[in-house]
Amino acid sequence: MNLDLNLLVGLDALLEEGSVGGAADRLRLSQPAMSRTLGRIRRATGDRILVRSGRVMLPTPYAEAVREQVHALVEQARALLGPTGEVDPTSLDRTFTLRCHDALTHAAGPAIVAAVRAAAPGVRLRFLAESAVDDDDLRRGRVDLEIAAGLPRQPDLRSEIVGGGTLLAVVRTGHPARTLTSRSYAAYEHVTVSRRGRLHDPLDEALRAEGLNRRVVVSVPTTAAAFRLVASSDLVVAVPEVLARAGLDAAGLRSMALPLTLPPVDLAMSWHLRYDGDAAHSWLRARVRGALSTAGVTAPGPGQPLTHTGGSPQPNA
């Protein structure tokens, strides 16, 4: 029997993406080439795999039944046939795409670039801003590494907690508040940082638990924008401690402890499990991990879990 195991890769992409176009993008093929692959899979299996329903394509019962098995086989093949051993960074010629919070890029970006460039001059880095919507760019290979608050939902994503801390209140240097109580904090007007434009966040729940409410007058998508607003007014913004450390003095800002009991904010580095056995990607993760430490991102203490595989919800920002 003549088996073309590339059909498994195509089938995996079709089932993950749910469309010929999405699978073509993922595998960097043209849509006609991907359509021909789907035709070959249909002939090999005797099943239609995907059927059109209105404007979308739906998997057949057979496709649903074999989805996980196909994905596992493809990942095992990648691990088996992928490069092994140590990577030589001096000869590495590759572009890595990193996505992280704008303040984190500001705080740790220079250290990440310096660490990578010092050892691998042939490597190029692309920093992307956080998306305003949940997406599957890690799964599709559009993003190699993401650094964000919280852990991803998808079971095929790996995560490592690389730091964290509490939230701090940030105000302008000449702000009338020297310290904050929960009542005085609630009395000021506030800015929220939300990529979705939300005017409420867990801080409002913590205040309501004490019978208090605050007035949020503006929401902005980035910490940099929030800092600009706070620097020219008496507005208050709450940001993770690791993000508040970067350049507050230069921006004419200062931070204060929040007078509320809140859970710590974990900072996680996430990637797709297809890169677990990729020596170059592993090398990159080590450089980023070290650069985050250099930039003042505190690593988790003894006994805290370092790695995670999907399953926990990511906070909505």
TrEMBL record:
Keywords: DNA-binding, Transcription, Transcription regulation
SUPFAM superfamilies: Periplasmic binding protein-like II (SSF53850), Winged helix' DNA-binding domain (SSF46785)
Pfam (any one): LysR_substrate
DNA-binding in keyword set: yes
Extent of Polar residues compositional bias: 306-317
HTH lysR-type domain ranges (all copies): 3-60
Residues covered by region (Disordered): 295-317
InterPro entries: LysR-type_TF, LysR_HTH_N, LysR_subst-bd, WH-like_DNA-bd_sf, WH_DNA-bd_sf
Parts forming coiled coils: none
Family membership: Belongs to the LysR transcriptional regulatory family.
Descriptive protein name: LysR family transcriptional regulator
